[in-house]
Amino acid sequence: MTTAVLVPLRDRICAPTADALALTAGADATVLTEVGLPVDVARNRLAARALALRPDVVVWCDADAVWEDAQLFDRLRSDVVRLGPRALVGVVHCRREPMARAAAALDAKDFAGSPLEPGRHFPKAPSDPAALLRVGFVGAHVWAHAVELLDALGSDPFALGPHDPSEDSAFARRVREAGGASYVDCSAVVLHYDEQRDAAYAPEQPPFRHIAGRWQPDPSWNGRAAVAVPRSYGNTVDTARRRYLVRAGLDVGAIAGHPAPMTSE
Fold this sequence. Notes:
With 265 residues, this protein is an alpha+beta fold. The protein contains 6 helices and 14 strands.
């Protein structure tokens, strides 16, 4: 089964992510990147390149996604085969903050009120029938789908509409409109790495550090949340995020540049 791994980059793939890709991608995988572009533009260009390449499965991977599971891509590819060509499969993850909630929601219309719950929805063993959970939305930290899904979505599937808060929510909306659905493999928990702090984050857990060759909870964590570092995703996405925060009644000035609550980038 051929795979295209699509990675939008600010500048480079971080070292822990490169290690994870080397562990997981396999000899039949082609890694494609777009560097230094607004995230919606980069994702649309990568989608077009994947369509031209025609792999069996497309895997989207952020440049700061980190995992130790050598079977991760194999399991996601198996999920895609099982669910069919209109399915979008994501993983359990969160923003780059300790104790953040999972960046997935049971209801696409109520991101804030229907998050995945630890201990109930995740983590699950791969053999658990409940490990593959249909959701309203899951962020694009790691996604997998059949290349045929891109055929169904048409050109520029990440282009934002007037009510989309992010480019990945725009993509997920188009999947629903095309008769598809989003799922989370709740056996796959993927960390979100912060190079500035040399720490990685999983939903509703303390920070992780690379200790003795493994990602482990930071024993020195003092219980205080890290202050989010503002990041720009390009004018179109930044503006949509600010609109979302205003609609949600949040303080835009206090968290300017911060990802909207349901996203994970």
